[in-house]
Amino acid sequence: MISWASFLTIMGMLAVTYSTRLIGFFALRNRTLGKRAAAVMEAAPGCVLIAVIAPHFVSDKPHELVALAITLFAASRWGMLPTVLIAVVSSGGLGYLMK
C-alpha cells in the first residue's frame, strides 16, 4: 500500500504539472503565434525529454547507459510517444535484469 506522504507528493506533482499546462492554455488561447513562437512550442517536449535523460549520459551504471543507447536509437527513428515508451520499458527492464 502506498504511504500518505508518497500519495500527497504524487498529487502535488500532478497539480503543479497540470497547472503549468493550464497557465499556458489561458495565456495563449486568444493569440496567434508567429512562426518562431510556434517552433519553440513544438520543440518543448523534446527539450523536456532531453532534460530528463541528460543525467544518464554520465552514469556509471551499465543498464542506464544501455537504456540510453536504446532510447537514442528510438528517438532517431520514431516520434515522441514510441520513444518515451521504449525508454521507460528498456530502462525498467534492464534495471531489473542487470542489478
UniProtKB/TrEMBL annotation:
- For the keyword Membrane, the answer is yes
| InterPro entries (UniProt xref) | Brnchd-chn_aa_trnsp_AzlD (IPR008407)
Q: Which UniProt keywords apply?
A: Membrane, Transmembrane, Transmembrane helix
Q: Where are the transmembrane segments?
A: 6-28, 40-58, 78-98
Q: What is this protein called?
A: AzlD family protein
Q: What species was this sequence derived from?
A: Neisseria dentiae
